[in-house]
From TrEMBL, chain A:
GO terms for biological process: transmembrane transport. PANTHER family: INNER MEMBRANE ABC TRANSPORTER PERMEASE PROTEIN YDCU-RELATED, INNER MEMBRANE ABC TRANSPORTER PERMEASE PROTEIN YDCU-RELATED-RELATED. It holds the Pfam family BPD_transp_1. This is ABC transporter permease subunit. Its main location: membrane. The keyword Membrane applies. GO terms for cellular component: plasma membrane. PROSITE patterns: ABC_TM1. It comes from Rubellimicrobium rubrum. Residues 104-330 form the ABC transmembrane type-1 domain. It is a multi-pass membrane protein.
Amino acid sequence: MSVVGHPEPAMAESPRKARADAVQAADDRGALGHRFLRAGVTTLIWCVVLFLCVVPLGLVVAISFGHKVEGAGWEWAFTFENYYRFLVGANWPAETTFLYLTQLYWSMRYAVVASVLAVATALPFTYLLTRQSRRAQARWLVFLLTSLSLSEVFIVMGWDIILSNNSGLPVLFSASGLTDWMKATGWFDVLRDWGLASPRNVKFKTSEFATVLTMSYLVWPYAVILLYPALSRLDPSMAEAARTMGARPWTVARTVILPAVRLPLMGTALLLFVFLLGGYVAVTVFADPAKQTTAVSVFEHVRGSTLNAPFGAAQSVILLVTAAAFLVLGQRLSRRSEGAS
Amino acid sequence: MIKMDRRALLKRGGALAGMTAASAAFGTPLIAQTRTLRVGSYGGYFEDSFKEHVFPAFTAATGIEIESITQPNSSDWLVTMQQATAAGSVPSDLSLYARDALIKASRLGGLLKPLNMEMIPAAANLDPYFVFESEEGALGVGAMSWFTSMVINPNEVEAPATWADFWDSSRYESSLGLSKNFNGQLLDITAATFFDGEATFATDEGILAIIAKVAELKPNVALWWSAESQMEQAMKNGDVIGGQYYLDVSNLMASEGFPIRAVFPKEGNPQDYGSWCLSALSDKDAEAAEFINFSSDPATQALMSRRIGTAPLVAKEKTDLTDEEFAFVSGTPAIRPAYDAYLDKETFIKEAWDKMLAGA
């Protein structure tokens, strides 16, 4: 019995152990498979990033050192002539021009003014929006999100019509007698000096006014959507406490609300700035050639009749570096202000 | 019935023009029965008119089926064809290039195949200027031409007798729409009006003098247009009361009742033209030659003038166009653009022009 019985537990144990081993091995295999899978997915993601981001960017940088063949296309080379041209013009040193730096200046000027304008007007709107009922907020947000589906081309086309002589604001000006009144009072000549009137009527295109207006209109919904989370988290009791202590609404806004949303405010402005830096359609349609931007120049050189891809690429690289510099600067500033508070 | 199916198939192939490689493989057994040719032309109204009037006439005459390929314009298309040629498969056999793009393509090399002029006897109808010869042979034969015309709003101003009137700020302050591109032919107009025309482009000083003269126009310009549609809208909306615009579109707009009138001042208007060019990778030499021969025929030139609004490349006497029909699309004198200068000194002219516009 015992002879028979002794090995019994052993026999009983060994299948259990074997089963445990098998499970363990299967687990190991599973873990190994998991690890392989994870490594595979990571590699795939890196490949996609490499293929979609790094390679095109690398190509742009490589092409920016290329050499333009006059009257034909361009060839691979390693020359800094395109970067020199950006700084001092193609005929340097015989002649110096800051044409391309001026264009970069306009790129930044439009982007700064339009993004600040958008954030400044979106802030009070969003603040009031967060004080509405849930239902109203949802409706507004859905409406704003829908408006994002309008492309830059559509928006520019719309403003083009609104500002046109026979179909837009100028008709309103002349039909209401405002044009004649301005002509009588001398204001019309002031507008002519500003380039906002022809001898016949007011004219809003081409002008810096129309360009900035359209650009800030373009990014305004983004500003609201980006500011919304921060403003809706704001505790209303803080503002109420300040009010009960006798602070006027403006003081409350300045000393309570603004400091609380300073970081998201700066982040939003920076994001819109970078977004607008590459704006193309609004600038080509509404800006005078004297006030056009680097983005327009890039397009003209790459796709225009000169086929000067290297110079276009060099300008893109410079635009990219400028955007990056602003982002770093913005981050530094906000970190410093964080430390100060 | 069988023919219908084949057409439907070919049409579907055409719809997939973006995936040319796929449609080419798809169409191979059909090509074995029918001779075909892929022909590029500028999209929109222009291409539609070709598909409706010119290609069917050619198919009826020769039995060769045409697959129409949309080109955005000639300079962008040159970039596309350059990349396609490098990749080994081109979307089109024949392309339509303006003369500057054609010269550029010939200088780039390896993009175009010389045409067999013996198979194109009708080209003798054209002025030799319109057959572009390089060292390799004839690379392009004129297809049609178009004028950039002086235009005015007849409700606002009298038709000027000379381009020089546009420099008069008492009449045109902030009122004109002119081309923003350095090779938009405003330089040629200015050279013909105030200088010795094309000859002035020979020296850098000459070019700078022309550009300085254009700079005097700036206070009178309300719109520096880069896309055709901008000028069309500006004329319709009354944002400008004059400027430069394509002759055929201006006349078309006028016939639709818009306040625009094309004028031939005493210096004339700039004439540009498009050429048929065969891709270096195409094996449709014979079909292409037949098509170009057909296109060079005075009857086809007249057909294009009537249906598409292009100016004929053959003398008016060779066609059956009436005076009225001819005046709709053409006129005299013609200003010939300084193509060589635009290419040989392109960086110089572009930068000097951009500086002038920027006031930098």
